[in-house]
């Protein structure tokens, strides 16, 4: 279940992406910010530099891998298999992420192929065409 939010976090970004894992395991990092076991986090979500206004649940393991229930990823607009099983973010092709522990935020960069298609506009497949009034010409 996603939670809507209007809070905006401020702060620099740590990195949990595969290429930047050392940023969070740096010996100079506060031990309080490093997970000792699997932990559940509720984080503000930014996708492609756009605030979603949502907070989603993520699991962070001791190796700094983040995962989230597939249903939450789908609600965020990320293409994930149906169901509630946990999906590792680094297992999704064309998706990268950065975790900011101080702002309690995760920034996700996703290529179009990693996102669900969105229908924009008022038309719906089941929409009924309006019937003109007899007085109209």
Detailed description of the structure:
It is a single chain. The chain is built from one helix and seven strands; from the N terminus they run ββββαβββ. Strands 1, 2, 3, 4, 5, 6 and 7 form a seven-stranded mixed beta sheet that branches. The longest helix is centred in the middle third of the chain and has 6 residues. It starts with a strand and ends in a 27-residue tail after the last strand. About 16% of the residues have low confidence.
What's the short story on this structure?
The chain is 4% helix and 30% strand. The protein is mainly β and 137 residues long. A hairpin with a 5-residue loop joins β3 and β4 (66-69).
How many individual β-strands?
A: 7
Mean pLDDT: 79
- The CATH topology name reads Ubiquitin-like (UB roll)
Q: Note the beta-strand portion.
A: 25-35%
**Can you write the helix and strand succession as a string?**
EEEEHEEE
Query: How many H/I helices?
Result: 1
CATH architecture: Roll
Percent of residues in helices comes to: under 10%
Low-confidence stretches: 6-27
CATH hierarchy class name: Alpha Beta
Main beta-sheet strand count, sense and barrel state:
7 strands, mixed
Distance between the termini: 50 Å
Radius of gyration: 19 Å
* Gross morphology: elongated
Number of individual domains: 1
Helix/strand/pairing class, anyone? mainly beta
């Amino acid at each position: 279940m996603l939670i809507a939010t209007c809070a905006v976090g401020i702060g620099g970004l740590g990195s949990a992406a595969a290429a930047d894992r050392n940023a969070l395991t740096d010996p100079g990092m506060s031990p309080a910010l490093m997970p000792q076991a699997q932990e559940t986090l509720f984080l503000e979500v930014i996708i492609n530099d756009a605030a979603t206004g949502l907070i989603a649940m993520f699991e962070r393991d001791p190796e700094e891998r983040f995962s989230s229930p597939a249903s939450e990823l789908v609600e965020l607009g990320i293409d994930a298999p149906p169901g509630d099983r946990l999906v590792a973010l680094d297992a999704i092709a064309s998706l990268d992420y950065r975790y900011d522990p101080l702002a309690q935020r995760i920034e996700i960069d996703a290529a179009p192929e990693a996102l669900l298609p969105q229908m924009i506009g008022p038309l719906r497949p089941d929409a009924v065409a309006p019937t003109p009034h007899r007085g109209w010409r």
